[in-house]
Amino acid sequence: MGNGIDQALSADWPYPRLVAHRIGGRLAPENTLAGFDACIRFGYRMIEFDAKLSSDNQVFLLHDDNLNRTTNGRGPAAQHTWQQLASLDAGAWFDVRFKDERLPTLAQVAARCEREAIAANIEIKPCPGRDEITGRLVALAAKDLWRARKPLLSSFSFDALKAARDAVPSLPCGMLFDALPRDWLRIVRELACASLHANHRHLTQQNVRAMRDAGLRVLAYTVNDPARARELAKWGVDMICTDRLDMIGEDVVS
Ligand code: G3P
Ligand code: MG
Predict the structure, then answer these.
(1) Does 2 have pLDDT greater than 50?
(2) Where along the chain do its domains lie?
(3) What's the whole-model pTM score?
(4) The domain 4-69+104-253: what is its CATH number?
(5) Tens of pLDDT along 54-92?
(6) 202 an active-site residue?
(7) Is the CB of 197 within 6 Å of ligand 1?
(8) pLDDT above 50: residue 20
(9) With a 6 A CB cut-off, is 30 part of the ligand 1 pocket?
């Protein structure tokens, strides 16, 4: 077992190296409970998923702002009540085998995480204009729903992550970037982030070292090539977020 794995499961950082993107990666409809079966099949012990609010402030899972791509609904998610969203099919678009899969609530996901001892990275993905309220309500809900292991919160939205941190300072936060801004260190310090989550295409051995030297944990997304996953792990990247649960296992990153 590599040094990085020992470190990854230490008391201050109780998260494994491998993280299943959108719960089931490419093996199940994204952001649905069906993805848990894929995680368990391939030995994944941590998931990432996208959380947002319905018009009546239910926290539920969906990646896009609108319903068109991954459900049989249409239009902006933020204009639908939870009762309307709960009746949608969120599985058939992916494969007929998953017909009748529903959009899950954060509470349903938390229950599965606790039952299966799977850690969570909750990506706060606000609908347009709803950054602060989404950050706050996700953090408050997460604090009450997870008992065994604190979920790691992250967001591309500075305002959402700040609201989450202000609401529940005890939950670890990670700022999400695509291209790294020049002032990434100022931003993560302002939010007291425990981790930095970066598009792996923008990571180099040098900037990973700078992040680690700044005391940050590093998550790289979305790494679907085993050789690249191995390289990032060698550089000291703490978490590899991947769709390829079937191709990237502990043997690749340890
Ligand atoms: O949190 C990592 C990754 O999920 C960010 O990108 O678009 O898949 O949510 P996206
Ligand atoms: Mg995400």
Answers:
(1) no
(2) 4-69+104-253
(3) 0.96
(4) 3.20.20.190
(5) 999 999 999 999 999 999 999 999 999 999 999 999 999
(6) no
(7) yes
(8) yes
(9) no
